[in-house]
Fold this protein.
Amino acid sequence: MDFFNYSAGSLHCESVPAHDIASAVGTPCYVYSRATLVEHHRRIAAAFAEVNPLICYSVKSCGNLSVCRTLVECGAGMDVVSGGELFRARAAGAPPSTIVYAGVGKRDDEIAAALDAHIYLFNVESEDEFVNIARIAKERNAICECALRINPDVDPHTHRFTTTGTKETKFGVDIERARAFFRTYGRDPHARLVGLHLHIGSPVYTTEPYVEAVRKALALRDELIAEGFTVSVLDVGGGFAADYETGKSPAALDYAQAIVPLLLPAVRAGLRIVLEPGRSIAANAGILLTRVQYVKRSGDKTFAICDAGMNALLRPSHYDAFHFIWPTETSAAFIPTRREEKPAMTGLVNVDVVGPLCETGDYLALDRAMPPVARGDLLAIFTAGAYGMSMASRYNSSPLPAEVLVDGLQFTTVRRRETYEDLVAHER
Ligand code: LLP
């Protein structure tokens, strides 16, 4: 579900034609729909209402201040993984008591900043890190709460780069070590170990891996409680999928129906639940607009050469990810009713949609069936709101794209396009 639809042959974000935004702001340009962000958050909150979770939006998926602020206005907390994201979350107005902080490599200065901010929870990933947090907290005469990230050794069946819950990855500690961890550190007066954290991977297209991971976490919690430890928080992490192709991912309700019954007894006995969704909120709340610069034929291939490539959207070349791409202006015969790799339409042509950079890996789609495109056409790359702008680079000295937030009939540039001066601003 999102608010990007064709009306009279023209793609609209909410009530604004995409081509109006491109004319005003230029390309490449990320366009976010406020109503979609709000609706995605609402659906997760409604689906999990029985366990009343703290929903901490994963800032890494799309950290634009206006996007974060929109979610703060919905009541979301923030999941951060760096001092930079903590800064963003606070600048967006997130109350520190709703901020959770994960990441395997927290630096001393980042830990100190999080302590000074009085965030809700450190999600701790190793013994070394816990000792360091406890030391810094003691030095500052502070008390903080921590959840131990456990590695449940569950396969989320997703790309190997974004699989995090299997034992060969760098994340969390295995369940055997987790027991020893609580015995060794579970009574620290400055870093109070009060919970467990999971994040098994992203995107997770089935509910079973969550069921397996949550079961393991709850069983461990029972053991720890029996030993006299407090485990009052379970952070289930993120990873809910988003529809890159129409109808391909479970809905928030599907995840909730699988997970909530497992959690309910413990929640009724006082357990607090945290969720960290990123993609499921932001992905389909954003598109990337790019202008076709040239169409070129070589051998039996056709290339649509665009002004956005792997610099603006890394996912196709980095993860072999599918993003639906379609012209923003199209005749009645080519109005897409579903976003899919092989639309059932006649008259489509196969093109490689590529960027301007000097690498063969610089593409947005290979051999993609699309309506015929020409120089000057505006293309929309869908489901680009998550891990789009947040992973964009300035490779080939490309200024970062602009970002626009649409709200009904209005749109606002929420990050201006970078200039050439910006490119060299920190250099000498
Ligand atoms: N919590 C933790 C601890 C995480 O590491 C992540 C994502 C999330 C929550 C949010 O996961 P989400 O709900 O967005 O799936 N760049 C990759 C995705 C990397 C995800 C990293 N961690 C991509 O473009 O697919």
